[in-house]
Amino acid sequence: MPRVVVDVMLKPEILDPQGQAVANALPRLGVSDVASVRIGRRIEIEFAGEPDLDRAREIADKLLANPVIEDFAVRVDTSDETAGAHS
Amino acid sequence: MPRVVVDVMLKPEILDPQGQAVANALPRLGVSDVASVRIGRRIEIEFAGEPDLDRAREIADKLLANPVIEDFAVRVDTSDETAGAHS
Amino acid sequence: MPRVVVDVMLKPEILDPQGQAVANALPRLGVSDVASVRIGRRIEIEFAGEPDLDRAREIADKLLANPVIEDFAVRVDTSDETAGAHS
Amino acid sequence: MPRVVVDVMLKPEILDPQGQAVANALPRLGVSDVASVRIGRRIEIEFAGEPDLDRAREIADKLLANPVIEDFAVRVDTSDETAGAHS
Residue D63 and residue C29: Cβ atoms within 8 Å? Predict the structure, then answer.
């Protein structure tokens, strides 16, 4: 089914304490080469017919993101985006 | 800075009530062609040096996702992924 | 305005990697006496009239929690619950 | 085990689109007397020894909340808080 993906991230200038917590936990895993971790949301919208980017953008703007503190990006999902990377 | 993106979604067979709430709210926006909405997490990991997929996968497995109820996918972020789609 | 609070937490037997990340980050803050951290959701529902616990429970069950993996608790918010503790 | 609860909510003046989505979905459940829904986080911190509110407040300030956009409240969990209300 055709799918639109909306990525929502806090704006770069806004502190993300949950990402910070993950970053601070990494040395205990022996990881020392990570500069930053940011945690946002990924929303998958399946359309009954054609995927509609304008519609998805409107949904994101009203129900998925707060444009004052968050940025969002909307795109049609391409089948090869995550291919082979799924664990 | 080189970046790895980790997408974490509830497994397909697990109900996502927050996505369901968004889907149920859509008719009030005049949207009737959406079949489903699923809400997950998107994590951006910036590496000080080369992006390291194996490392990112290990981080995801231990600190970002619960493999019993969630699937995750790891990929190196390509600059054109969201180009032109940012609102 | 009368308010009902719904607390949603992953069931105790389900691993919470985000809470684990916070717990793992604590030694870097000099904190060593924390046994566990669990991260859930708190939802505040304001009613136009009387707070309605049965209604809130129905909303939680359908739109706020997934009963297969999460527990939830519903209560009327009492004004002194957080008094003096707000930072 | 002694437990401290940290409630984190977006500041009242900051729009909460996820709560808005739930509120907008309620008429379809036949619910019309809800004025607003706000979704935040509830974090349970178990201490190995005595529950330490000052410590919990420091953890919240650094790893759980972003004080620019969120308010948090810290309290020792009392056993009767949710008694009888668990679904």
Answer: yes
**Residue A19, helix vs strand vs coil:** helix
Gap between the Cα atoms of B78 and C11, Å rounded: 37
- Judged by CB atoms closer than 8 Å, whether chains meet at C68 and B21 is answered as no
Q: Closest Cα partner for B54 from A87, A67, C42?
A: A87
Enumerate the residues of chain D whose CB falls inside 8 A of the CB of residue B34.
Answer: none
Alpha carbon distance B49, C27 (integer Å): 26
Predicted interface score ipTM higher than 0.85: yes
CA atoms of A32 and B40, how far apart (whole Å):
27
Interatomic CA distance for residues A73 and A77, integer angstroms: 12
Tell me the three state secondary structure of residue D47: strand
Distance from C-alpha of A20 to C-alpha of D17, rounded to nearest angstrom:
23
Evaluate the CA torsion angle A50, A54, A58, A64 in order and state its sign.
positive
Nearest to B42 among A31, A33, A41 (CB): A41
Q: Would the CB atoms of A29 and B59 count as touching at under 8 Å?
A: yes
In terms of phi and psi (left: phi > 0; alpha: psi -120 to 50; beta: otherwise), the region of A85 is alpha
pTM for this model (two decimals): 0.89
Query: In terms of residues, how long is chain B?
Result: 87
Q: Dig out the tokens for B22 from the structure.
A: 């968004």
B9 touches chain A (CB under 8 A): yes
In sequence order, which residues have a C-beta less than 8 Å from that of residue C21 and are 6 or more positions away?
A: A18, A21, A22, A25, B63, B64
CB pairs < 8 Å spanning B and D: 25
Residue contact D63–A17, C-beta within 8 A: yes
Q: Is D63 helix (H, G, I), strand (E, B) or coil?
A: helix
Burial class (CB in 10 A: 0-12, 13-18, 19+), A80: exposed
| Yes or no, beta carbons of B87 and A19 under 8 Å apart | no
Query: Residue-wise pLDDT tens for chain A (87 aa)?
Result: 789 999 999 999 999 999 999 999 999 899 999 999 999 999 999 999 999 999 999 999 999 999 999 999 999 987 655 434 444
